Amino acid sequence: MNKKATQKIAFFILRVLGLLVIGLLAWILGFILYNGVGVISWEFLMTAPAEGMTSGGIFPAIIGTLCLVAGSMLFAFPLGVMSAIYTTEYAGNNGIVKFIRVMTNNLSSIPSIVFGLFGMALFVNTLGFGDSIIAGSMTLGLLVLPVIIRTTEEALKAIPQSYRSGSLALGASKLQTIYKVVLPAAFPNITTGLILSIGRVSGETAPILFTVAAYFLPKLPTSIFDQVMALPYHLYVIATSGTDIEASRPIAYGTALVLIVIVFCMNMIATIIRRQVGKKLKTN
Predict the structure, then answer these.
(1) Among 204, 232, 234, 192, which Cα is nearest to 216's?
(2) What is residue 78's predicted lDDT score, i.e. its pLDDT?
(3) What is the tens place of the pLDDT at every residue in 110-158?
(4) Which of 112, 114, 121, 248 could serve as 238's disulfide partner, Cβ 3.0–4.6 Å?
């Protein structure tokens, strides 16, 4: 076969595979939407579970999930960005930096339950935080730290060297160049890591199982040292080990739908911020 025929066949296969992935995603979302939309109500969203979690709502789990997402991002995002700035702008390309990058890539492939056990050993037991929001947030932060570091590194590398040279030639220091020139230009791409991290943190169960999640806690947290309910763990509990699995099955679908909507909304907010920053940079 000639090159054009081979190319057409390859493109056809890629289109078919892409459509299959999109179709599978649409089927999963449609299934959850069909089974969960009937459960969604103001009472479901704003009340606590009741009667062995076979009735009532998921409000404490929603608040707990938002607390964990916010806490993990406050811990991981600044640390990941600063680590990427060091390896990209200051450390050069020596053997130590290469080793750090290899270890970072390895960390991103470690199962999440290992992070959960590590978080329990370090934050819960050794540091004495107990099962708490801060222990769960820091564990989730460590889980997504490699993603933030790698995406930030790639965003910084994409900035032309002429930006740095021009800023230094005008008398700016290296720190001023990074803070005033490089980071603003790279920020739209840096937020990609934030978006990916939010999606992963929102749906993780294993890390919070050992560090923060409560089986049944129908009240809101009052400090970062409190336990909380969380949507992923709550969904796991009512779907597998609830007091009446059949009675709580509609609640499980509703919980899954709410979790998907929350992740979608947070990703949309981050995407809008990225676009607005990108437009502002272009106009300037």
Answers:
(1) 234
(2) 92
(3) 888 999 999 999 999 999 898 899 999 999 999 999 989 989 988 898 8
(4) 248
CA atoms within 13 A on the CB side of 56: 17
Angstrom distance (rounded) from CA 257 to CA 35:
9
List b or e across 227-251, with b for residues whose CB sees 16 or more CB atoms inside 10 angstroms. bbbbbbbbbbbbbeebeeeeebbbb
Residue 50: strand pairing partners: 55
Between CA 137 and CA 239 the distance in angstroms is 24
Over residues 30-56, the pLDDT tens digits come to 999 998 888 888 888 888 888 777 778
Query: Which residues, listed in sequence order, are joined to residue 154 by a DSSP beta bridge?
Result: none
* Closest C-alpha among 62, 71, 75, 44 to residue 220: 62
Residue by residue, DSSP assigns 189-217 as HHHHHHHHHHHHHHH--HHHHTTTB-SS-
Q: Compute the mean pLDDT over every residue in the chain, rounded to the nearest whole number.
A: 86
CA neighbor of 208 nearest in space, from 184, 191, 233: 233
Helix, strand, coil percentages for the chain (3-state, nearest 5): 75, 0, 20
- Kindly state the tokens that stand for 209: 């199982």
More confident residue, 100 or 278: 100
